[in-house]
Amino acid sequence: MIKEISYNQYAEQAIEGVSKGAFLTTAVDGRVNTMTIAWGSIGSIWAKPIFTVLVRPSRYTYQLIEQSDEFTVSIPLKGMKEALALCGTKSGRDLDKIAAAGLATLPGRKGKTPLIAGCSLHYECKIVYKQTMTNQHLSPEIDAVKYSVEGYHTMYFGEIAAAYTEE
């Protein structure tokens, strides 16, 4: 059963859950892809509830999210480790990760992008701002550790249109 909640009602659990792995899902023209994220934040910016996610341009999800104006984040607070591992190591260019991981989706209630079924928390987000990172204002320590091999992320600021728990 899906129950609508305030965006910040489970913010502490959401942030902790994201750090252990969550599903970032995008959809464009019938193509749905999910990837595992471990970085993200929930807060208030511009007097709006915002979920910020980061995606590298090398990812298939980047191609889709750039063509979309929305995304969802589904956070399993327990289990789903194998699905998170698969969705974090395989590309949606090569296979349907949702099917390969044995995942199911639920329709979004506020948008077209589905949620990943079986997760404890879900957020539907409308992109209100994006910014490609550079090293110009980035701490040298973070740059050296997190960006020594791959390129910089684009940050997507999604206004949280709805938040849910799944029981």
Automatic annotation (TrEMBL):
InterPro entries noted in UniProt: Flavin_Rdtase-like_dom, Flavoredoxin, Split_barrel_FMN-bd
MF term (GO), any: oxidoreductase activity, acting on the CH-NH group of donors, NAD or NADP as acceptor
Residue span(s) of domain Flavin reductase like: 15-154
Transmembrane segment boundaries: none
Pfam families in UniProt: Flavin_Reduct
Family: Belongs to the flavoredoxin family.
Protein name: NADH-FMN oxidoreductase RutF, flavin reductase (DIM6/NTAB) family
Organism: Dendrosporobacter quercicolus
